[in-house]
Structures are given as C-alpha cells and as structure tokens.
Amino acid sequence: MAVYAGVTVRAVRDYRKIGLLPEPERSGYRSYDAAAVVRLIRIRTLADAGVPLARVQELLDAGPEELADGVQAIDKDLRAAIRRLQDTRKRLARLAAGEQPALPRSVVGYLDRLRGLGVEERYIEMERDAWIMVAAQVPHLIDIVIAKKHEQLDDPDMVKLYSFFRGALDWPADDPRVVEIADIVERLRMRAVEAGEAGADGFDDQFVDLLDSTMVESSPGAERLVAILAERGWKGWTRIERVPADSLGTDLPP
C-alpha cells in the first residue's frame, strides 16, 4: 500500500488513525483495495501541495467547484502566512543591525535626528523608553506622531530646547536654565494651543500620569520646570492643558 502510493508505512498508519483512511478488512494482515490506494494518493497529493491535514478530509470528497474554493481559501491563508514570515525576517534584520526591538523604525529615525543635534545619550534613552510605551499604547498612530515631532524640530525654539540637553541633566532646582527652558516650553505650548494641538491623542489619564511622572522624576530641575509651568497656568506635561487663572491653587511646589 505504501509503495504503491509513494508514502511511508508510518504515514499510512497515521492517516488511518486520524480517519483519513478507512479501517480495512483484516485476515491476519490489513487488506487494502485499489480504492484505498487511490484515496491515499489523493491524500499525499493534497498534503504535498501544502494543504493542512486538518483540511484534507473536506477536500478529498469535494466536487470541482468546492475543491477550487477550498484551494483558494488555503492559498489566501498561505499568502497571509508568507507576509507574516516576511515581516518577521525584516524585524530580525533590523535587530541584527542593532535597532531597538520594541521601537518602530520611525522612532529610531527620530532619535537619530536628536543625536545629530548633539543631545546627551542619557536624555535620548529617556525619550526612547517613553516612545516604547507610546508605541505600545497607540501603534496605529505612532508614525503620525513622529512625523509631527519632525515638523516641530524645524521650529528654532524646539532646537533651542534640545540644545539644553547636550550636557549633564542633573541640574539643581534653582539652576537659571530651568526658567529659560520654561520660557521656551511656554512659547511652544501657546503655539500648539493656537493650532488646536493638545497632544496625547488616544491616551487615557492613567497613561498620561505615567509619562508625566517619568519626566518629573528624571531630575530636580525637571520637577521645578513643571512647577514653574503650573504657576503660569499650564497643567501637566504630556497633555497640554491651559488652566484658568482663578482655578490655580496655592499648594504648588516652591
């Protein structure tokens, strides 16, 4: 039986166990007829063509139209699997090239642009970690967000802001550069509000708080920066919010 169909004896036994081949009559040995040989050849043909064994049964006894439809469905699944494998190979190639595994290529390009501005690597690592979280939160928006960040880098104020991060970041809270940074950030925020860009699209409040706390805890100077902006009526960091003057509290950090 196996020799006639061009398969192994084990294959014959396995096909019988899963119901693709009927149990033959026995008189000491299993006795297969010509119909069983033909059926086994058809099973082998379908399997060699890439038809999963789970779907061989439905195609064995299908008519011409049903067979064509079934084959087309399998081909569609295979093409989808090929695309997934190609994407996997591309990701592996990027890993081999040293790119961060959790970062989209658009973010990698943006961080490289910051390096070109001379930004301190420690600050870039902070941004990288933040972008990893953002990309996981809104993967469908990350390329749009990064494109906007590139546009912002065309603003002289934004370039000036990043120029402060070319050296050590452990500034004390009373460092005069903190006030200068606050002035720049406020100008950038005012322009963003005028353009109707509040930022943090697609983020819930808890995620915004997480990003804000990461920034504030990065250095004493960062905490003081947020406090100064709050004194001027700007709430938070990730999401741009203008607070009316009459709603400002008196319990802000010194």
Briefly characterize the structure:
With 254 residues, the protein is mainly alpha-helical. It is 63% helix and 3% strand. The longest helix has 33 residues, at 64-96.
Report the structural category. mainly alpha
Helix count, DSSP H or I runs of 4 or more residues: 12
Unreliable stretches (pLDDT < 50, length at least 5) are 250-254
Could you report the average pLDDT, rounded to the nearest whole number? 83
What is the fold's blueprint, element by element?
Layout: H1 2-5, H2 9-17, E1 25-26, E2 30-31, H3 34-48, H4 53-60, H5 64-96, H6 105-116, H7 121-137, H8 142-152, H9 156-163, H10 176-194, H11 205-216, H12 220-231, E3 234-235, E4 241-242
Helix pairs in contact: 3-4, 6-7, 9-10, 10-12
Description:
With 254 residues, this protein is mostly helical. It has twelve helices and four strands; from the N terminus they run H-H-E-E-H-H-H-H-H-H-H-H-H-H-E-E. The strands form two sheets. Strands 1-2 form a two-stranded antiparallel sheet. Strands 3-4 form a two-stranded antiparallel sheet. A hairpin with a 3-residue loop joins strand 1 (25-26) and strand 2. The protein is rod-shaped, with a radius of gyration of 32 Å. Residues 250-254 have low confidence and may be disordered.
